[in-house]
Amino acid sequence: MLAITLTQNQNPIHIMNCKTFFAGVVALGLLVGCATEAENQAALAARAKVSRADAEKAALEKAPDGKIVEGELEEEGGKLIWSFDIARPGTKNITEVAVDAITGKVIGTEIETPAQQAKEKAEDAAKEKKKKN
Fold it and tell me: Do 84 and 36 share a domain, yes or no?
């Protein structure tokens, strides 16, 4: 348990109110960030002509023995795409497949090694951090 030593001018109620206030501010910031991302995804989904399920089927045709481990709808290079990371048996590489969210056609396939995956993850985290600041 954390012990707080009070001086003459400190009021235990005031200290608790400050802690409660700052905790509330942090929680509100997290909620706003989540709501903004959810709103962004909803706006992208409203523009998509191809469902996630149909896009997954198209992606798995490029990696039929694979399993989708992650997928998202995003805007990339001015195009609305479904992007899927597909794990395949016998390898630690990930097959990334991009499906046009308007036409349903596969527009790109890329094999990513674990090192490339780690680099991409670090770049994404840096972008998120920069976006929040």
Answer: no
Mean pLDDT over residues 118-125, rounded? Answer: 90
Please state the pTM of the whole predicted model: 0.67
Q: Give 3-state DSSP helix, strand, coil % of the chain, rounded to 5.
A: 50, 25, 25
Same domain? For 67 and 86 the reply is: yes
Provide the 8-state DSSP code for 74.
Answer: E
| Residue 60 pLDDT level (bands cut at 50, 70, 90) | very high
Range of the domain at 19: 10-47
Contact assessment for residue 44 and residue 55, using Cβ atoms and an 8 Å cutoff? no
Number of domains in the chain: 2
Distance, in Å, from the CA atom of 51 to the CA atom of 100, rounded to the nearest integer, reads 11
